[in-house]
User: Fold this.
Amino acid sequence: MSVVAVVGGQWGDEGKGKVIDLMAGSASMVIRAHGGDNAGHTVVNPLGEFALHLVPAGIFNPDALCIIAPGVVINPESLDRELGALQQRGVSTQGLRISDRAHMVMPYHMVLEQAQESLRGKDAIGTTGRGIGPAYADKVTRTGLRIGDLLDPSVFRERVLHAATQANQFLRSVGREPAIDASAIARQYLSFAERLAPYISDVSGLIADAVDRNSRILLEGAQATLLDIDHGTYPYVTSSACTVAGLCQGAGIPPRAISQSIGVYKAYCTRVGSGAMPSELLDATGDYLREHAHEFGTTTGRARRVGWFDAVAARYSARINGFDNIALTRLDILDEMDSIQVCVGYEIDGRRVDQFPSVASVLDRCRPLYEELPGWQTSTCDIADFEELPAEAARYVGRIEELVGAPADIIGVGPARTQTIHRSDPWSGRV
Ligand code: IMP
Assistant:
C-alpha cells in the first residue's frame, strides 16, 4: 500500500507545503483531511508561487484527484476565491472533489470567535480569526451545517435561520450587537453553491477504491502536532486533530492503509499565536532568523515567534505520530550562524525534565537546556547530495535525527523543488 501521511512535527509552518508539492507530482490522490483556511501552504513550483489555504497541493498535478475530506471545515467564500485565483493563473481545478460531509465555516463563526477571543482577555489564544474553533464546536454539538446542505436550498435556509438566531442570542448575552442576518448569509452561501456544486459529492467511494487499487495517496497535514486539539499545548491549540491518526479519521482512510508517516520539522522552531515556546529567542538572533527566513504568517501576515530547535517537543510529536522519517526543512536559514543551539531538555524549578509537559502552565515554567553545535558558515542552497553538506551541517542533521529518533530523509535547503536533498524514495522510505 502507498498511503503517505505528511504531518507537522512542531507548531505549524514547517514547510509541509513544499514536501507535499514535491510528492504530489507523482501521487494519484492528495487528500486534505482537517483544519480549514487557517492553514496556509506556500508552494513554489515552475508555475510560480502560490499560497494555498484549502485546496490540496496536488492541484498542480493534472493527473491527481484532490480531495477536501469530511474532517475539513470549509469557508465557501475563501474556497471560491482560491479556486478563482488558481484558474486565473492557468491552473486547472478539475481534479478537485469536495466531501459533502465537510462542515462549513459560517460568517457568524468569525463574529463569535472575535467575541470569544476578546472575552478571554490576556488568555486569548491568538487564533487566525477564521472562525475555525466555533465551526468545529458546532460540528461537535451537532448544530453545524455541512457543505452538502447547500445542495438543498430550502433546508439550508431554515437551518441558517436557526443557527443565526442562536448566534444573535449569544452576542446579545455578552453585550454585543446581534448583527447576524440569516437571509443575507443564505443568499451569499447559495451563490457560492452555484460554483462549488460540481465539485461536491460523497468522496468515500473514491477514496476506498484508490486504497483498494494501491494507488499513491498523499495525506496532507495542516497545522501541526503541537497544535493538535488532544495532544497539543492545550488550550493554545487549533480545534482539529492534526496527527497521523487525525488525518486517517478526517479523510476516512483505514489506519492499516498507512505505509509511511513523514514528520516535517523546520531546522529551528516557530510559533504563531499565544502559548509557551520554551526555546523562543527574544533577542537579536531571533530577529535575524525572522527577517532572514521571512517568518511572517501566510494566512494572517503575523510575525512568527522564532526559537532554536526544541528536541524535547520534537521527540514527543514523533512518538505521538510514529514518524518513520523526517523532512527537515530550511536548513539553509542557519547557513550564516557561528554556532547553533538545540534545546535538549527543560529545567523547571531547578529540576531537569526530559518529557514534554501536558499542562500549559508547566510548559510556561520550562527553561531550555541547550547543547551547542558549531555552525558551518557556508551556503547550502545549491547542495543536492547529503555527502556534499559541510561536516558541521551533516553533524547538526545527525544530532536532530538522534534526538528525534527518526532519519532525516528529506532535507530542504531552499524554497524551490530542486533545493532538496533526498536520501530515500519518499514513497517507499529507506529500503
Ligand atoms: P485557529 O486554528 O485559528 O483556531 O488558531 C489556533 C492556534 O493555532 C493559534 O495559535 C494559531 O496561530 C495557530 N494556527 C492555526 N493555523 C495555523 C497554521 O497553519 N500555522 C501556524 N499556526 C496556526
